[in-house]
Specification:
- The complex is a heterodimer of chains A (about 200) and B (about 400).
- Chain A is elongated and about 55 Å long.
- Chain A has two domains: about 1-80, Rna Polymerase Sigma Factor, Chain: A, CATH 1.10.1740.10; about 115-195, Orthogonal Bundle (Arc Repressor Mutant, subunit A).
- Chain A is built from ten helices and no strands.
- Chain A has helices at about 1-15, 15-25, 30-50, 55-70, 80-100, 115-125, 130-140, 145-155, 160-170, 175-195.
- By secondary structure, chain B is α+β, with helices and mostly antiparallel strands.
- Chain B has three domains: about 1-40, no CATH class; about 70-310, no CATH class; about 320-395, no CATH class.
- Chain B has helices at about 5-15, 20-30, 35-50, 60-95, 105-110, 145-150, 160-170, 195-210, 220-230, 275-280, 290-295, 300-305, 340-350, and strands at about 125-130, 175-180, 185-190, 250, 255-260, 320-325, 330, 360-365, 370, 380, 390-395.
- Chain B is elongated, with a radius of gyration of 30 Å.
- The chains are: A mainly alpha (about 200), B alpha+beta (about 400).
- The interface between A and B is large, with 49 and 43 residues.
């Protein structure tokens, strides 16, 4: 028992991510367990941002790792694991939220307009109490469609590049940009409206 | 001064512009209040939302990992039983409920002398050993299975079958038990994990099929069999509303068990009485080896999937945890003492892994390490204290 624990600790502390991935692909469940440890917080965070419910987020996280484990043997280690993992968790979250249809998703179509027209909105945001602003943004994100929400979260919260988002969601970079612009537009419009300003 | 469009400003915020473009935009922003306001507001709005995130406590991730590990272990173990159940369903479907379409019942078969070693005892729980004579066999239903075997004999040589054999290594010799109580399982297929016997089961099926090809299918004999079996004494789960041949399986306590039906139909249906099957959901079992089973009899597998329902999962009310010391003394363990262990048990309970009356025994080393039993064999929980000697923790679900 002690030997196992010592082995586990030393082996996992010294193993790099590529090594762990190679082992996990070959069915090493200890290696996969270490990968879970490496990514669990990021995966949970994405799940939680996507569904805004702790219980659902835990379920999504667990489900995403189980899916990843089952599909691990087919994972090509030449690709980036985190984009693959992000794809699994976003798809899992989207499927869950779609199946539950918990809340109506409203997509605002308003664009930003000219610089002068957004000056009031910008001032409103800058002068708003931090907590109110966080709450307003959160509400706005919840109201995005899953497609827009996932792009917004991967960019704004996870700070992925456009290319990484495109790889994660298997869409073109141009699509990432257009969705991101629409998502940001929607969020800002809602936030300003929520804060009592004029978009 | 011409302001850049908003998309360009967004790309500048995101760092997606080339260095030359970015420098140009930076210069502009520094001189343009409007663009500066836009960029500042956008950055502020996004950063406060991003920075407001707080990770959950590490202990909740520990619990998630425990649940994950438990589910994976459970899945692996259940997958094996599920495959075994599928194999047995095929076996029973052919060997027992698709034989003698003229309406011979179990008791009639018992009277046969032609190689049939059928013994029916009417004790409270008795065993019936079936050695069905091939001459009496008539293949009925499951055309897919018939074709598969016709084309690819010997079945045991098919690609993938050897994997199943390796994974299962199950002895498919049957002992059919009956009881007086409807609550008891009716057919016990006791897999003793003896190597190589699954191959025997498949080859038997193939031989049976070979013989049966020349025999015509016959009509439904549900009532006949039901009557005969009912008249033989013990309770034998044949439901009158099931008009098709059926062989159902569940898994209880590591023993394959199930309900046997009768009649004619497509491969037979399964009435999953096993809590574990219903608990996990069979859709999880998409392993390659399952596909191999499906290739033997797809309709049978579909029936198993369709007829397993969550209502058969028993509900739990609670559990108790006790520590048995090396000295033999037993101590009731409070939740706040070993929270990690209780969190694990909670997760087991919440997912209906164990039913009332079942128990789990963890071993505890003198170092305060709790090791999981059997299905939880990867579980290691470190207790805050040491010096327990070689003791054991017993969890009793009730």
């Amino acid at each position: 028992m002690i030997f196992h624990i010592v082995y586990f600790l030393t082996a996992e502390l010294t193993a790099s991510e590529p090594e762990l991935l190679e082992r996990a692909v070959l069915g090493d469940k200890d290696a996969f367990g270490e990968i879970v440890r490496m990514y669990e917080k990021q995966v949970f965070r994405v799940a939680r941002r996507m569904c805004n419910c702790d219980d659902d987020a835990w379920d999504i996280t667990q489900e995403a790792f189980i899916k990843a484990m089952k599909a691990m043997r087919n994972f090509n280690t030449e690709y980036r694991f985190f984009t693959w993992m992000y794809r699994i968790v976003t798809n899992t979250a989207i499927n869950l939220t779609r199946s539950r249809s918990r809340r109506a998703e409203v997509e605002f179509d308003e664009g930003y307009g000219g610089g002068g027209q957004t000056a009031t909105a910008d001032t409103t945001i800058q002068e708003t109490n931090r907590d109110l602003l966080v709450t307003a943004v959160q509400k706005a994100v919840e109201r995005l469609t899953p497609a827009l929400r996932s792009v917004f979260i991967l960019r704004v919260d996870q700070e992925l590049s456009y290319e990484e988002i495109a790889e994660t969601l298997d869409i073109a970079t141009g699509t990432v940009m257009s969705r991101l612009n629409r998502a940001r537009s929607s969020v800002k419009t809602f936030v300003v409206s929520e804060l009592g300003g004029e978009p | 001064m011409i302001c850049p469009d908003k998309n360009t400003l967004m790309m500048w915020i995101d760092g997606e512009l080339s260095s030359g473009e970015a420098d140009s935009i930076s210069d502009h922003i520094s001189q343009c209040d409007s663009c500066m306001g836009f960029v500042s507001a956008q950055k502020q709005m996004e950063s406060v939302w991003r920075d407001a995130w707080v990770d959950p406590a590490d202990s909740t991730f520990d619990m998630m990992r425990n649940r994950f590990r438990t589910k994976v272990n459970w899945w692996r173990k259940q997958r094996t039983w599920y495959i075994a159940a599928a194999l047995c369903a095929v076996y029973l479907g052919v060997r027992i409920f698709y034989v003698d379409g003229a309406g011979a019942s179990l008791s009639e078969m018992a009277a046969e002398e032609t190689g049939a070693a059928v013994q029916i005892c009417t004790d409270e729980i008795s065993d019936i050993s079936l050695e069905v004579p091939r001459e009496e066999s008539i293949y009925r239903g499951c055309e897919d299975q018939e074709q598969e075997i016709r084309q690819d004999e010997p079945v045991s040589g098919q690609s993938g079958i050897s994997e199943i054999e390796e994974e299962l290594s199950i002895d498919l010799s049957l002992s059919v038990s009956r009881s007086e109580s409807a609550e008891e399982e009716d057919v016990l297929l006791e897999g003793d994990y003896a190597a190589g016997h699954s191959e025997m089961a498949f080859s038997l099926d193939a031989q049976t099929m070979e013989h049966l090809q020349d025999n015509p299918a016959v009509g439904d004999n549900t009532e006949d069999v039901q009557e005969k079996v009912a008249g033989s004494g013990g309770y034998y789960r044949i439901e009158s509303e099931i008009s098709e041949e059926s062989a159902g399986f569940g898994i209880v306590g590591g023993t394959l068990s199930g309900a046997a039906g009768s009649g004619a139909g497509d491969c037979g249906t399964a009435s999953g009485s096993g809590d574990t099957i219903a608990d996990e959901g069979l859709n999880d079992y998409s392993d390659d080896s399952i596909d191999d089973v499906l290739s033997v009899c797809p309709a049978q597998m579909e029936n198993i999937l369709e007829t397993t329902d969550a209502s058969s999962v028993r509900q739990y009310e609670g559990y108790s945890v006790s520590l048995t010391l090396e000295s033999g003394e037993t101590i009731h363990v409070q939740r706040d003492a070993w929270d990690s262990l209780f969190m694990l048990i909670d997760s087991l309970q919440s997912q209906n892994y164990y039913s009332a009356g079942e128990s789990l025994v963890f071993s505890v080393s003198n170092d305060g390490i709790i090791s999981g039993p059997d299905v939880l064999d990867d579980t290691v929980i470190e207790l805050p204290e040491t010096g327990y000697g070689n003791s054991a923790v017993t969890v009793l679900f009730y």
